[in-house]
Amino acid sequence: MMARFSEGDRVKISRRYPAAHHRVPNYAKGAVGYVERVCDAFGQPESLAVGGDGKPLQTLYRVRLNQSLLWPDYRGETEDTLDIEIFEHWLEAEE
Amino acid sequence: MAHDHHHPPPQPDHPEPKTEYELLGMALNELLLEKGVFTAEEQRKTIEMLENVTPADGAKVVARAWVDADYRQRLQTDAPRAVAELGIDHSQANLTVLENTPETHNVVVCTLCSCYPRMLLGRPPAWYKSKPYRSRVVKEPRQVLAEFGTTIEASREVRVHDSTAELRYLVIPMRPENTEGWSESELSRLITRDSMIGVAEARSPN
Prior knowledge:
The structure holds two protein chains of two kinds. Chain A has one domain: SH3 type barrels.
């Protein structure tokens, strides 16, 4: 399965709010970070949650976000980060 | 929907369901048994197996990683296979290890539910599943860690891992000082559940 993004690529997590089950927490929607690693391809949670077969499989990525950019009032150090697992159909290329 | 057939009452040793959801859960369970999706014995065995796992299994993995650099490398590249070397089956989920270093401290959460490396640590603690931990540790990790008695120096990066999908995470805490020459079983006594979630450091030997 061909992954659209590679390690180090800058990506944006889609800002979508479907009513149905999905595995992207609201706080991360719209956030920009980079691909920390490319994981395997897995079934789509949107389909699996309602008894579907999850196909086509989607590549899963670990995306690293900077905490100070994620939370405007972040009370930590500027180097602090957050890694989150995001499926390819929830990622957009970011220049 | 027509409802003209008789249901047996819940098992006599079960408490009366208190909420609609509890009732729904029981009904679903009874249906799965009635339809033969699994047997009562299979269900009991699975629960027993899950409840027999304790953080001691995770500690065995960490202790080996502390004394054996090659093993630590194998854990990084293929954690499920590396834990299988110690007789632990973690093939059902994609185990990933996160090594704490003098530069980085890792802490794990599942903001969407309660994903947890159960085959290494057993059942997650109540606070791990609680809304306050799940909502706060992503936003103010240093403050939450301080409430656990864990102060991370400003010079160390705090990295939160939100277990939102398919991976399960095990933190490898830093090996405490003054433990040179210790055996794996001696070391494993310093490795607590909380240190493998990342809300604490390993115990100090002193």
